[in-house]
Every structure is written in C-alpha cells, then in structure tokens.
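I need you to check the entry underneath: sequence plus fold tokens. Let me know what the token row says about the fold.

>
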Amino acid sequence: MRSSSYSAMPARALRALVVLALTAAAAPVAHADSGTEASLATKPYMGWSSWSMQSSKYPGLNPDGDYSYLTEANVLKQTDAMAAKLKKYGYEYVNIDAGWWRDTTWKPAFDEYGRQKADPVRFPSGMKAVADRIHAKGLKAGIYLPAGLEKEAYGGGRTPIWNADGCTTADIVYDDLRTTNGWDSSYKLDFSRPCTAKYIDSQAQLIADWGYDFLKLDGVGPGSGKSGDQYDNVADVAAWNEAIAATGRPIHLELSWSLDIGHAADWKKYSQGWRIDTDVECYCNTLVSWENSVDDRWDDAPAWTRHAGPGGWNDLDSLDVGNGQMDGLTKAERQSYATLWAIAKSPLYTGDDLTRLDSYGLSLLTNREVIALNQDGTPPARPVTPSDPQQVWAAKNPDGTYTVALFNLADAPAAVTGDWTTLGFTGKAAVRDLWNHENLGTYKNRITQALPAHGSRLFTVAPRGTEVTFTAYEAESSGNTLVGNASVADCSACSGDHKVGNLYLGGKLTFNDVVVDKAGTYQVKVAYISGDSRSAAISANGGGATRHKFPSTGDWGIVETVSVPVSLKAGTNTITFDSGTGYAPDIDRIDVPKSS
C-alpha cells in the first residue's frame, strides 16, 4: 500500500531481522552480486498493481467501502486481461497490494503464528490458489506486507513464532512496544533478540510456499514520512533479503515509499527496487491527477538517477495512463507521464483497469520502441537543462545515439528546444520520434517543438556533427568576485578540489574574464552541488538575470551538471550567479563552449 492511505486505516505489519551481528554475518547482496537475486532486476519490472483502483473514489470501483476493490475475482479478471493484452509486450507481474488479509471494515486476520491470513471474503480460494491461477497464465504473482509486527498480531505477546521453539511475539519486539513504519501500525522488531529473525523467516517461507514471486514491503524508513531510530527499518530490509534467499525461491523485493536517499546504498544492497516519492494516486474521484502527484517526479527523480541500474531500479510508482477519464489526465499529460517513467527506467506497472483500456492508453502502454528504451538496462536519463517549466532530459546510449525528451511542464503551451551543445556535440543530427515511430529527418544544432501544457516529445538523436570543445572556469579562481557570504570551500568531488558555497541571502559569485570569439547565446555548462533543489539568478555583463532552478544532486558531496543559455558578447565577459533572497547551489565550475 502507500503513503497517506495507510494512515486512514487500521494497522499491518511485517519486517525483520539482522542486527549488526547478523548483518556482518552474511546477508545476501541483492543489487551488486551475481546470482538469482541480481538476475531478478536486470531490467525494470513490468506489470499491474491493485492499489490505484483500491484507493480511488471513482464511481463504482469500491462499491463495498474504501479499498473494497481488492478481491480474488477482480485480481483474476485483471490477470486474464494482462495475459490477453499486455503479456506479449513484457508485462508479467500481477501484484496484490494492501488489504488481502483484512475485511471491508479493515479488520485483520492472522494465523496461529502471527502471520497475515487471507480474508475469506476477499480471497475465498486462498492466496496460494490465486498465485497458481496467475502462474497458469504464464505470469508472476506479487503480494504486499508492511514493515514491523502488526499490533493486532501481537496477541498479548503470547503468540508463538513458527519453527522457533520457545519464541513468542513478546520475544521479537521492544519491551516498550515502540511503533514503526509510515503509519505507526506495527511494533518495531528488535533484532538484538535471537527470536526476531525467525519471525521474518516464517513470513518469507509462507509467501514462498504460496508461490509468490514478488514482495512489496511498505512503510519502510528512514523515509515514508518518518525519521529517527524508531523508524529505521534497514535491519528489517536486510533480514528480508536473507530470509528470502533462505527459501530458495526467487522473490523480487520492492521497497516503499518515499525512501530516504541517504540510505540509497542500503536499499541497493538489500532489494531490487525502491520507491523514491510519495504515492502517485490522488485519493480522489480519479486514479491520479497531474498536480497530486504526477508532476512531483520531475523534481524528485534527478537526485536518484545515479543509483539505478541492473540489479535495482528507482520506482516512480504506478503508471496510470490507460483508462482516459478514469485516469484524470489529458492526453498530453498521459504521454508525458509515460515518457518520464520510460526514460527514468522506472518499473512500468500500471494501476489501470486492464479490462477497459482505451485505444490511446493501450498505445502508450504497448509502444515497443518506448518499452525497449525502458528495458535496455542502461542508466536513466537526467535533466541537461535546469528544472524550469521547459526542460530537456537526455542520456547517451551505448551505440552513440542519445535519448532526448522535451517537456513543457507549464500550464500553457510553450516551445521547448533541445540544443545539441547540451549533449556535447554541434552540427547535424538525425532525429527519430519514438512515440510516433517516425524518422523526422536531419536537424542542425537543435530541435524546437511547440508543446501543449504538460506536453512532451521523445526522440532518439543520432549525431552527425562534431564534438563540442569547452573552456573551463573554476569557481574558486582568485580572479572571480565573491559578494556577501559567498566563500571558497574544500570539495573532494569537485574539479580542483574546491567550490564556492554559502550563496544565500544576497551572496553572489561572478566569473570574470570569460572570453568567447563571437557574440551569441552559449549553452554554459554549470557543475554544481545541492543536497536539495535551489535556485540562482544568472546574468552576463551586468544585464538582466534569469532565475533557474537546479535539481537536487542528492547529496552535498555529489556534483552534477546542467546547461543554461547565456548571451555573451565577443571578447571578455562576466557571468554572475546571484542567490537573491533565497539559497543557491554551491558552484564547482562552468564550462563555456568555444563557439555559440
């Protein structure tokens, strides 16, 4: 399940294992190592999830109360539709989300060992039978559990743990019954106690025996709206990783939601995927809406880009673009949504009703060129321009071509230009439109497209020109001018091992003596560091400034680059970065093309 939704319901639970001692012992590494676990996520997974329809107020979806959509009959109906419509395009996981062990009043059921048990009304055949039916269609089955020991499973501390003589629920949690996960719906597991790992082992063995191929572990922290030791579930995730390996069954472990990027190394080590943001669903009378919260991903995805790759991927949440009016989006928004998910190499799992995909939605979900781009196992695209309303995202492909996406995130139509200089070359390039399967011909130096509000285009660009050469200017150069609090600081990740920081509340950095041969607009590459998204006003030669928003680099020790257009005169120029009344990123250096 997900963010705000869970707080509106009763509790749930699950997670455990591995204290510092256990972790040191031999927890399997899901992301980096070869073998069964890493092979699960050589590319982003594709499939369907029940949560979007469960959480929606769309008329008729949940007739028996909130979240009542989740039933065996509905899951199998979606399974049949996926097999018929999407399987041949690579969609394979049918993922059952939160509530499978709860009735329509959200009252839970547990077995005699404190493990979640299927609600007999929702799933009268039981969870194994459902997995068997999914497998019979040549698909894979996914299931959901929350972090910790659900409060209702505690049983006064007397509930025995399966296959763990003498262990009860009182032996696996803290004596003060501190809570954990994004909704405080579970007691925190104490991994310093020897019985605790046995509980996770029992959970993992149960879902393996049922035949599940995928587990979404939800409410994981740090993240999920919580921080602090009480909500640190890294040990739980490590325990799950080890317990799954011990079952001998390959089970994809996906973590949710809005996880702390500061623990990216842990998520990569112990899982095959991790949510980077809040829920995409709007919990309204459609499945999603643009403002709540599809559009958040353009701001939040860039910081995570470096962490994705074969073995583990950044999860942007459900891709609900197939049902038209039920989705709650314009056609332009649906295409932009699908474009970002594809180039970010997010898992492609839809929450739509697969039994009533409209023709446009089906075309988005089954475009073989776009799917191939998402599934090619290469790193995600990232912004090559600032996070302004008009953005360009790009990635260089192994064959020397570039994936280039143009986005107009403004609420009105606007033109967006992809300049070849931001990709590192100049001259001519052949352009192919991936959504429309059309070769557009050759474009010189740039491509400009008029886009509707929230619109996009997606291209493959094949360079036919020459490599751009740059002149580098270091921020810490003694020839530059610093104003206000701006100061030089050490930076091991920076070129020259230094940067200029403290650009806030009027702090300014001016690069002096920037020389170009002829007047023109130059795509100046800015190397910067910013642990959060920050803005700076950029101007040349004391002229009018343009404020640009720089996406977070994810950490104050990580350098990224974007290119900003700056009009320069022939000869010597100045380029100023002004924090204004806010906070600007730290600046490492700028690289100015030798020709405009």
About this structure: The chain has three domains: 3-332+345-355, 383-467, 470-593. Confidence is low (pLDDT under 50) at residues 1-36.
